[in-house]
Design goal:
Number of strands: 2
Structural class: mainly alpha
Radius of gyration: 16 Å
Number of helices: 7
Order of helices and strands: HHHEEHHHH
Number of domains: 1
Largest sheet: 2 strands, antiparallel
């Protein structure tokens, strides 16, 4: 993962902050980078663990996110996933969600640029999406499972910004 280290060493790629979750939270809130939910600091080690589940070139953007068409690079998306509390093994689903919503036929620009209060709703199916115990019990559609909360929170962070960078 030396490529990740090289990317993180680029000017402006990282911020210095005390190794204290509250300090990280306050910094993110002060820059408008938080939705107010708890945040897990995206340390290089955590981002690298997330990227172990990504099997493509790290230099290639996953998608361009409207309305500003900022590059959703694997490192940026992984950092957002870490902050949302996503487990590394769920990261491929986050990537799939971003790719699906970035397709022209979905019209993410319309969703991102409208004044109407709408948000994407995704349903995952298959072995990777199901918990070890099987499908949701008692017909529950929404759950408090960590995999559900983190995918939604990660996408919400990307959705609000339209770009993973904030100046």
């Amino acid at each position: 993962m030396s490529t990740v280290r090289n990317m993180l060493d680029a000017p402006g790629a990282m911020l210095e902050v005390d190794d204290d979750p509250e300090a990280v939270y306050e910094l993110l809130c002060s820059k408008g980078w938080s939705d107010g939910l708890p945040v897990i600091p995206p340390t290089p080690e955590r981002v690298e663990r997330m990227l172990k589940y990504y099997d493509r070139a790290l230099e290639e953007p996953i998608a361009k996110i409207p309305p500003r068409y900022g590059a959703a690079t694997p490192v940026r998306v992984a950092a957002n996933a870490v902050m949302a509390g996503c487990k590394p093994e769920y990261f491929p689903l986050v990537v799939l969600a971003i790719e699906a919503m970035a397709e022209d036929r979905y019209n993410l620009y319309g969703t991102q640029a409208t004044t109407h209060p709408c948000t994407p709703f995704l349903i995952f199916n298959g072995p990777r999406a199901r918990p070890e115990r099987g499908p949701e019990r008692d017909g529950q559609l929404f759950s408090c499972e960590r995999r559900d909360r983190t995918r939604g929170s990660t996408r919400a962070r990307e959705h609000r910004r339209g770009d993973t960078r904030r100046r």
